[in-house]
Amino acid sequence: MSAVEDVTESRLLLAEYDRIKEEQKTRIGFRDNLLYFTLAASTAVLAITVESRQAQLLLAVPAICLVLGWTYLVNDEKISAVGCYIRDQLGPRLAELSGAHGAVFGWEIYHRNDPSRVTRKRLQAAVDLFTYLALPMICVTAFWFSPAARPILVIVSLAQTLALAVLGWQFLRYAER
After folding, report:
1. Is the distance from CB of 52 to CB of 133 less than 8 angstroms?
2. Residue 133: which of 74, 85, 61, 84 has the closest Cα?
3. Inter-residue contact 43 to 65 (CB < 8 Å)
4. Helix 151-175 vs helix 117-129: crossing angle, to nearest 10
5. What are the CA-CA distances from residue 114 to residues 28, 72, 79, 86 (Å)?
6. What is the pLDDT of residues 125-155, one digit of tens each?
7. Reduced to 3 states, what is the DSSP secondary structure of residue 12?
8. CA distances from 59 to 135, 144, 150, 165, 172 (A)
9. Rounded to whole angstroms, how far apart are CA atoms 48 and 106?
10. Rounded Cα–Cα distance for residues 77 and 27 (Å)
11. Which three-class secondary structure state does DSSP give residue 99?
12. In sequence order, which residues have a C-beta less than 8 Å from that of residue 65 and are 6 or more positions away?
C-alpha cells in the first residue's frame, strides 16, 4: 500500500482532531496559569506599594491586568472555538464519512448539558471580572484618593479605566458562550 493510498479523509480529520485537542489542552493550561500569575503579580505590586508608600505604583496593577486579562480572554475564546469547531464541523463530517449514528465526539456535546454548567460559567465570569476589572479599579480608586495623584498620572489612570471598561465588556460578551 502506498503512502497516498493510506491517506484518507477520515484519517486526515482524525489527525486534525488530535492536533486541535492538543492545542486546546495547551491553551487551557496557559489560560489557567495566567489567572494565578495575575494574582501573584498584583500582590507583589501591592506589597511594594505598601512598603515604599508610593501610591503611583498602584497604576501598575491595571497595566498588568489589561495585558494579562486580554491574553486570558483571547485564549479562552480560542478554547471555546476549538470545541465549537469539533461539535459543528469536524464531528458531523466524520460521522458522515464513517456512517456513525449519532455524535462522533460525544464528550464535546455531553459536558455542555451539565445542569450546573450555567452556574459554573457565571461564577467563573465573576472571578474573571474581579481579577481583571475590580482589582485594578480598586487600585485606581485608591490612587485617585492618594497624595500622589498628579494631573498626568490621573490622565493615565483615566485611560486605564477606559481600557478596563472595554476589557470588562469583552469578558461579558464572551461569557455567554
Report:
1. no
2. 61
3. no
4. 170
5. 20, 24, 18, 18
6. 999 999 999 999 999 999 999 999 999 999 9
7. helix
8. 11, 10, 12, 15, 24
9. 50
10. 10
11. coil
12. 38, 42, 131, 132, 133, 135, 136, 164, 167
Q: What is the mean pLDDT of the chain?
A: 91
CA distance 51 to 67: 25
Helix ranges restricted to H, the chain = 3-6, 9-52, 60-85, 91-98, 107-110, 117-129, 135-144, 151-175
Task: Return the closest-CA partner of residue 58 out of 69, 66, 70, 50.
Answer: 50
The string of pLDDT tens digits covering residues 148-163 is 999 999 999 999 999 9
Are the C-beta atoms of 42 and 60 separated by less than 8 Å? no
- Count of Cβ atoms closer than 10 Å to residue 126 Cβ: 12
Task: Centre a 10 Å sphere on the Cβ of residue 14 and count the other Cβ atoms it contains.
Answer: 14
User: Cα-atom radius of gyration of the chain, to the nearest Å?
Assistant: 22
**9-52 and 60-85 helices, crossing angle to 10°:** 170
Which grid coordinates are listed for 155? 490622565
* Distance from C-alpha of 115 to C-alpha of 97, rounded to nearest angstrom: 32
Q: Which amino acid is residue 96, in one-letter code?
A: E
How many of the other CB atoms lie within 10 Å of CB of 53?
10
